[in-house]
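Risk register update: the risk of archive-format incompatibility is retired. Evidence:
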Amino acid sequence: MENNIVAETKNSHGEMIGEAKTFEEYKGAGVFADLLLDRTFKKAFNPDTQNKVCLIALLNAVLEGEIASPIVDVQSRNKEYSDGSNENRTSIFDLHCIDSAQRRFIIEVQIFFQKNIVNRSIYYASQTIIAQGQRGKKYNYELNPVVTVVFMEFNVFADDRYIRRAKLREINGSCISDTLNFAFVELPKFNKPLDELETTLDKALYALKNMKNMTQMPKQYANTVFKLLFSTAKLAKLSKEEQKMIDEAQKAKWDEYAIHKAAIDSGLQQGLEQGLEQGLAQGLEKGANQKAREIAKKMLLKNEPIDKIIDFTELSEADILAIKASLGQS
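Archived output:
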């Protein structure tokens, strides 16, 4: 596919630097891989390698105040939970892990708009709940918490908040159950510049959103666990095979973006064309009605019979009588 579709991009300071018009521009500065690719994300936050510290820091920051105790250790549970979505893998990918407190985590990245994203998350979290059920008369519904974290490269909610945390609560806000926990992060709404990053969450989201456009690791990350992300995502340190796979994944993401944008543009154009057509028809109808009324006035002033005026102008008798009254004729 020839890639001439426009996409937004930013520099290492989070500032807009124009629009990418080619795949080479879209994939970033060419120093670090895009963290929001399936392969890169899973490698950067792998719960079974030293990079688990990045995943733990990310989850604790996103879920702050919503889980009973901080996460101290995690490991993969992909073997336990092998059921997955059949959706296009360039649009969604996920990571499943479990911590030392036996809490199950579903971490998703959504690249393109997903209708009913909240309901979708509830559905898959519920599958993880059901999977904990045990046969037998003595089973008393002892359930370990399931936590779903969704990072989105699009906006869903109406206000400017970029993170939402939720669980089962009373109307007054009191927690009823910790069994289901959700966090939704809208990355386009996170717009803090590099020099204003303060919290762990700030640094995590900035890296997720902007690493592919950086040419070196900013000093703000020097004494954080996230410095591992930069070494993991540095293209020069990857094998040729890994670089090829990441390039192919980035190309697939770009192509999907191009198709998605073309579909939106096509729908918008179609809507404009339909709107113009409808507006033109309405305008012509209104103009014809106005012209008929002007003719009716002239015929009434010449004392033409009402039946003749109706036949000539195709106006209703009520319209003719109303025009007649406006002329002061009885």
